[in-house]
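Our consortium's second objective concerns turning raw sequence data into structural hypotheses that experimental partners can test. To show how far this objective has progressed, the report includes one record in full. It was chosen at random from the queue rather than selected for favorable results. The single chain below, 122 residues long, was entered without modification.
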Amino acid sequence: QVQLVESGGGLVQAGGSLRLSCGNSGRAWSFFIMGWFRQAPGKEREFVSAMDWSGDRTAYADSVKGRFTTSRDNAKNTVYLQMNSLKPEDTALYYCAAGRLLGTNLTDYDYWGQGTQVTVSS
């Protein structure tokens, strides 16, 4: 069983930074693709970033390229999302997900966390 738990969300001013973490309390997950998605109120859940098990392949949404960086520590069963230069439009509930395909679709991922709230004030 894979159980994902996000942490690190909070309230930050525009231009600030946050680092989200996602840990897995279940079985080893080093072979999974790890993704980050977000969902703002009244909007659909959207892709943010993804990384393969080795960290060699990554993908980012255009809206976060150059500002967000994803990384992982397989020994700690943890994936991170470093978010810099945050904007009010980054405000959303952020989810981590585990899957088998480095994709941008929700259906590419099999396991989901409960989400952590990020609020960026202007």
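The partners drew two points from this record. The longest strand covers residues 92-99. The radius of gyration is 13 Å. Both points have been shared with the crystallography group to help prioritize constructs.
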